[in-house]
Amino acid sequence: TTTTTTTTTTASSEWTLPPIEVKGSHLYDSKSGNEFRAKGIGMPNSGEDVKEWIAVLQRIKSIASNLNVVRLYELPTCALVSDCFKAFMLEADKLGVYVLAPGTGTTWGWLPGSASACTPATADGCYKAGAVLGWGQTIIQRFNYPNTLAIVMGNEFDM
Q1: Reported pTM
Q2: Could you tell me which residues come within 8 angstroms of residue 123 by beta carbon, excluding any fewer than 6 positions away?
Q3: Dihedrals φ, ψ of 77, to 5°?
Q4: Measuring CA to CA, which residue among 46, 50, 9 is closest to residue 148?
Q5: DSSP string covering 41-99, please?
Q6: Burial grade of 86 (CB within 10 A; 0-12, 13-18, 19 or more)
Q7: pLDDT tens-digit readout, 87-135
């Protein structure tokens, strides 16, 4: 089976990277058909200024020209409530970089680190404790860009 993991939400002339497809257990460039091999790095958290995020991405890409993926861990607040982060995503696209968006958060959308954080102490209580569903819905809405490669459920969260 083939699954396309990225979708276009705005005028195609704004975006240049082709969608990445999943075929079996491999990733492929949807235009060339070539296997896609991620060469990535964890993006440093760059605060609330989206221009700073862009500057950091440009510095990283200038040092590691073969980089084609960055993983985001925390986002500026505006990225969860507006399209402020589109400028970063467009710059990543221009630089040939796909983005792994955080599927969990630190102040909300978090996964409980212990059963004591769950009320009630059940699987459902743990699921609802950090509002993971609401976070995930917001990320899907706000990161519906052609160069969003995946949404990553974090395994490095504050405990």
Answers
A1: 0.82
A2: none
A3: -55, -40
A4: 9
A5: EEPPP-TT-HHHHHHHHHHHHHH-TT--EEE--S--GGGGTSSTTHHHHHHHHHTT-EE
A6: middle
A7: 999 999 999 999 999 988 777 777 777 778 888 888 788 778 778 778 8
Express each pLDDT in 81-91 by its tens digit. 999 999 999 99
> Side-chain half-sphere of 123: how many Cα atoms within 13 Å?
0
Contacts with 49 (C-beta within 8 Å, 6 or more apart), sequence order: 76
Residue type at 150? A
3-state secondary structure of 143: coil
Tokens for 117, please give them: 């954080």
Asked if residue 89 lies in contact with residue 147, where contact means CB atoms within 8 angstroms, the answer is yes
- Helices 86-94, 50-63: inter-axial angle, 10-degree rounding: 20
